[in-house]
Fold this sequence. Notes:
The protein has a single domain, classed as Orthogonal Bundle (Arc Repressor Mutant, subunit A), CATH 1.10.10.10. Helix content is 60%, strand content 11%. Helix 2 (23-34) crosses helix 5. The chain is mainly α. The protein has six helices and three strands.
Amino acid sequence: MTVSDLQVKAGLHAFLNRYGNTRAKQEVLLFWALHPNAQFGKLALLSAMKCTRLEVKKALDDMVEDKLVEIHCNSGVVTYSLTSNDEIRQMVTLLRTFDWSQRQLLFRHAHTVNCLYGAIPEQGVS
């Protein structure tokens, strides 16, 4: 593993510790990793997740507040999309390069860190 690979992995861990601290947020992040250029209505997003609707709604609200997800309103129809921020998009889309077991390890590590040490202080994405 190169220094660059280690830096990317460390950056992704920090990103997941900050933004993927619940199962619902992890599912939403993975969803956007697989569909980074799409816009979906809330019902479509809720239907695609394995978490409860309340958990997904909370995750979406948090991600909108954190500017990971953007809300669009066209002719009264509300849709959501991944942010246009390139740095955040890069971190989210990086998730799709890992296979299922690697993603589970990343998410489990992020969850363990948050459970052991509490909330992660606000920091930059990189």
